[in-house]
């Protein structure tokens, strides 16, 4: 469904991504982990059209999309939930959610249908419709951010650290929503600093370091890799015959706060 091949990208003449190869199959959840500065969020910016790649290819269903405007990327069914501070605090929950339907605003019937669908999937949109977004908890704000992007009924959702700043209750709620979206057929690509949470949610795991993909494979195999367990999860695990290890990372990395 989504493929990045030898992507180089960065800011101000410097390259953060040093030739990234990454694939997401349809109806999967792929989690990208790695130390701060590895280029995880930059990958999402390249996919969403906020940053044009200097080299390499980004394809959706085989078509080149790298470097195309964000509006065109949205129309192709790719929506991103930013890392934080993505809501308008003085606007109501419903007003924030309706902002997600900007591209379909002229079709009032479709806009109402999408809003009804989002209310059913995320009850907070109906329950807190008139409340100012600035009065919500961290977990509630994340739910509304996800609800807003669902107004375009995306095929692929990009989530940038959805667990950031959430308490255990908020984490559980967001994890449940991600799982339900995927079960309904939405493909998910998320970046996470909470390695344990991210890889437990995912079907596939990707480890980045120094602007490159160092390890990729089934999420369980990535999570159980001895080096990943040592760096990020506080201990080592052993391979079993049922879970052969993916390729080694190939180099030291500084762990983020898990």
From TrEMBL:
InterPro entries: AAA+_ATPase (IPR003593), ABC_transporter-like_ATP-bd (IPR003439), ABC_transporter-like_CS (IPR017871), BCAA_Transport_ATP-bd_LivF (IPR052156), P-loop_NTPase (IPR027417)
Bias kind Pro residues: ranges: 243-258
Coiled coil: none
Region feature (Disordered): 236-258
Ranges for domain ABC transporter: 2-235
GO process terms (BP): L-amino acid transport
Name of the protein: Branched-chain amino acid transport system ATP-binding protein
Organism encoding this protein: Nonomuraea solani
């Amino acid at each position: 469904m989504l493929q990045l091949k030898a992507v180089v990208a960065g800011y101000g003449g410097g390259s953060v991504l040093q030739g990234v190869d990454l694939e997401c199959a349809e109806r999967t959840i792929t989690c990208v982990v790695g130390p701060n500065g590895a280029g995880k969020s930059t990958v999402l910016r390249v996919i969403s059209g906020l940053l044009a790649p200097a080299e390499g290819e980004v394809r959706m269903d085989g078509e080149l999309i790298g470097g195309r405007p964000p509006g065109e990327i949205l129309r192709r069914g790719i929506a991103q939930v930013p890392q934080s501070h993505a809501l308008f605090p003085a606007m109501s929950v419903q007003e924030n959610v309706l902002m997600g339907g900007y591209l379909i605003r002229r079709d009032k019937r479709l806009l109402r249908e999408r809003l009804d669908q989002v209310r059913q999937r995320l009850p907070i949109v109906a329950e807190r419709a008139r409340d100012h977004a600035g009065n919500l908890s961290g977990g509630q704000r994340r739910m509304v951010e996800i609800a807003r992007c669902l107004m375009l009924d995306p095929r692929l959702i990009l989530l940038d650290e959805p667990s950031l700043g959430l308490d255990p209750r908020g984490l559980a709620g967001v994890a449940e929503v991600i799982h339900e979206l995927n079960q309904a057929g939405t493909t998910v690509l998320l970046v996470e600093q909470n390695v344990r949470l991210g890889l437990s949610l995912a079907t596939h795991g990707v480890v980045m370091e120094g602007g490159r993909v160092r390890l990729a494979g089934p999420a369980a195999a990535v999570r159980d890799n001895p080096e990943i367990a040592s760096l990020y999860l506080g201990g080592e695990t052993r391979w079993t015959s049922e879970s052969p290890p993916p390729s080694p990372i190939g180099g030291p990395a500084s762990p983020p706060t898990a």
